[in-house]
Amino acid sequence: MADVRPFRGVRYNTVAAGDLSTLLSPPFDVISEAERERLYAGSPYNVIRLEWGRDEPGDTPGNDWYARAAVLQAEWLASGVLKEDDSVSLYAIEETFSFAGKNHIRQGLISAVRLEEFDKGVVLPHEYTRPGPKVDRLELMRSAKANYSPLMVLYRDSDAAVATVMKRATSGKPIVDAAPEGLPSMKLWRISDAADIAAVTEALADTQLYLADGHHRYETALTYRDEVRETRAIGHDDAINFRLMTLISVEDPGLLLLGYHRQLEGASDDELARFREYVVGAFDLEDKGPIDPTNAASFEEALNAVPEDQVAIGFAGVEPGRLQIGVMRSPAPAADELAASDYTRLHNEVVRPTFNLEREQTVVAFEHNAVAVLRSVSAGAAQVGFVMRAVPIDPFEKIVTRGQRLPSKSTYFHPKLHTGAVIQRLEGEL
Fold first, then answer.
1. Distance from the CA of 357 to the CA of which of 76, 174, 196, 316 falls in 20 to 30 A?
2. Distance between CA atoms of residues 43 and 49, nearest Å
3. Is a pLDDT exceeding 80 seen at residue 399?
4. Do 31 and 37 meet the contact criterion of CB atoms below 8 Å apart?
5. Where in the chain is the domain with CATH 3.30.1760?
């Protein structure tokens, strides 16, 4: 049973902190160091200082950016830069953005959701994680005792009960309106009416929740909760049992699931030759011209035009200097949607004949932007690029509800959620 709760969110006080548009950031895992510097320069109160602060000369464990985040958070709360809402609420958020020449609106419900182990079947993952990001996020939670970036989580609104509450909430005047650079424009509403909150929590109680973005942060929250449990008693409604999430309906027209691409780096000459030979033998290859990053959009469009029931991968550099769309000639029979996905096929039937699992983890890198993949191959930084189609949402949902997981980095939900719009404190009761 999903336990979706209202909570007392911590939000920026724009009277003290300035324009909210200068205070928000993307989540830490998609920010480059250059972007971090831009965010630092934009405002002395930008949430980047809490979400992913700078390392400084002389930093030591316990005297580092994690510790500085905790100090800053306390200072901002004391000075009124940040303020905790006076009562518990759910928060409706509406994001407006453009993609591929079209305007989109995506709505979500910011809430606190009780942490459950994956085997309970309440919150379901769709991919496996790596240890590195979890170590970083755990240090931040230990120090700051807060969550700044919500997880993106999907649900099915079978009876449209949540949609009804959301429509009512968003018909009123928003409490904030912001247009941060590099992120969607956003509006936020508080949902504080007890009847509306009850309608939402009851509607979602029997719903499975699908982790779309934030697997590392979810697993870190479980680890942190269990750490604290070993040191003290935790009440049933203590905030530490819950994780900040933005819940989005799988039927939301603004929900965009994009492909997550790969590139081959550091293969030996012999490995590269064997790999190219295998691809040429396994795929019908259609030449799409020289590798040109400016043609990435049209290349993706042509790739997406291949019927879904065919295994199709965009190759950059299988034939040196050329872009090609490959359709697999004789794919192995697929038992289900997971086995049939382009991502499973790529790793099991294309990469693995040349590179064993350990070697694959060394030579295959991930990149969500097709332009960057083509740029890397054309510059010689990568040897071969793999431009991938998105997993359609219906197969995605079937894979997740069966308890299966796609290969790592098989989905890219666009755009990322705002960090800092609503913050969850982890001390005391929710």
1. 316
2. 10
3. yes
4. no
5. 260-389
| Model confidence pLDDT, tens digit, residues 204-245 | 998 999 999 999 999 999 999 999 999 999 999 999 999 999
pLDDT for residue 216: 93
Cα distances from 359 to residues 232, 264, 322, 347, 413, in angstroms, run 43, 11, 25, 12, 28
SS3 call for 131: helix
Sorting pLDDT into bands at 50, 70 and 90, what band is 1? confident
Instruction: Using pLDDT thresholds of 50, 70 and 90, give the confidence band for residue 396.
Output: very high
Task: Determine the CATH number of domain 260-389.
Answer: 3.30.1760
The whole-model pTM stands at 0.94
Cβ distance 278 to 354 under 8 Å?
A: yes
CA-to-CA distance for 319 and 314, rounded, in angstroms? 12
**Other residues' Cβ atoms within 10 Å of the Cβ of residue 340:** 18
* Most distant CA pair in the chain, distance: 66
pLDDT digits (tens, 9 = 90+) for 106-118: 999 999 999 999 9
DSSP state of 346: I
- CA–CA separation, 260 vs 342, rounded Å? 11
**Alpha-carbon distance 353 to 271, whole Å?**
10
Angle at 32 between CA 28 and CA 33, to 5 degrees: 105
Tokens 């999907």 — which residue? 154
pLDDT in tens, 123-174: 999 998 877 778 999 999 999 999 999 999 999 998 999 999 999 999 999 9
Instruction: List Cβ neighbours of 182 (8 Å cut-off, separation of 6 or more).
Output: 26, 35
Determine the average pLDDT of the residues in 287-304. 97
In whole angstroms, give the CA distance from residue 269 to residue 277.
Answer: 12
Spatial distance between the Cα atoms of 355 and 274, rounded to a whole number of angstroms? 10
Written as six digits, the tokens of 257 are: 């699931």
Give the three-class secondary structure for 416: coil
Q: What is the DSSP string of 302-327?
A: HHHTS-TTS-EEEEESSSTTEEEEEE
Q: β-strand 151-155 against 242-249: which pairing, if any?
A: parallel
pLDDT, tens digit, 9 for 90 and up, residues 4-58: 999 999 999 999 999 999 999 999 988 999 999 999 999 999 999 999 999 999 9
**Which single residue is written with the structure tokens 């590195």?**
132
Could you identify the residue written with the tokens 């090609």? 324
Which of these, 89, 150, 154, lies nearest to 420 by C-alpha position? 150
Residue written as token pair 């510059």: 379
